[in-house]
Design goal:
Layout: E1 6-12, E2 18-26, E3 29-38, E4 41-50, E5 56-63, E6 66-72, E7 77-84, E8 87-95, E9 101-104, H1 108-118, E10 127-135, E11 142-152, E12 155-158, E13 164-165, E14 175-181, H2 186-191
Parallel strand pairs: 9-10
Antiparallel strand pairs: 1-2, 1-14, 2-3, 3-4, 4-5, 5-6, 6-7, 7-8, 10-11, 11-12, 12-13
Length: about 190
């Protein structure tokens, strides 16, 4: 059995945001978490869950605009709700593909989860339109196809964004980035007491 992916890290995202992230893989899939800070404020806080095949199954997001919960249903639709300053806005019945991805503006974790799910199906040098729930920090979701390119084995591009690179494990290569295992060892345990 392959070792499960269990890491956390930090760095600077392509948009200049300070990013702290983690991924914890278990029997039911992966749980990705991220906090993005711009200046002295939180731009977004995200929990994204994928199943063992890498497919998006659940998202919880906080931004200065409000709170969003989103998940696909078995009937091929996307559901959830956004709680914003003037009430609750329901997301119901948006057409969805089982292989669709969630793509929050500026999110390293969303791109990591997308790379993990597409790495086995998009060849190096390949490009295709792929269905995505595009989520701005205002929480106005738009489900639409976006262009995804695999520029090299470890480098991807989402729409017209800057290229996004990962290491051999599929973890982000961020400016000033560091990656740490989530597992506790004796040296770490002593240092943080």
């Amino acid at each position: 059995m392959a070792e499960r992916l269990r890491f956390g890290g930090r760095g600077q995202g392509a948009d200049g945001a300070s990013v702290v992230w983690s991924v914890a893989e278990g029997e039911r899939g992966r749980r990705w978490r991220e906090v993005r800070n711009i200046g002295h404020g939180v731009a977004s806080s995200l929990l994204l869950e994928t199943d063992p095949s890498g497919r998006f199954v659940h998202l919880e997001l906080s931004t200065p605009s409000g709170l969003l919960t989103l998940h696909p249903e078995n009937d091929g639709t996307l559901h959830g709700h956004a709680i914003v300053s003037d009430g609750v806005e329901h997301v119901a019945g948006l057409a969805w593909d089982v292989d669709g991805i969630a793509l929050l503006d500026g999110s390293t974790v969303c791109r990591l989860a997308a790379v993990a799910s597409l790495a086995g199906t998009l060849e190096i040098g390949g490009s295709r339109a792929h269905l995505a729930a595009v989520i701005p920090t205002t929480l106005w979701i738009e489900v639409k196809p976006i262009r995804i390119e695999r520029l090299a084995a470890d480098t991807w591009r989402f729409s017209a964004e800057e290229p996004f690179s990962v290491d051999r494990r599929g973890l982000p290569l961020l400016r000033g980035g560091e990656v740490w295992p989530l597992e506790r060892d004796e040296e770490t345990a002593i240092r943080h007491r």
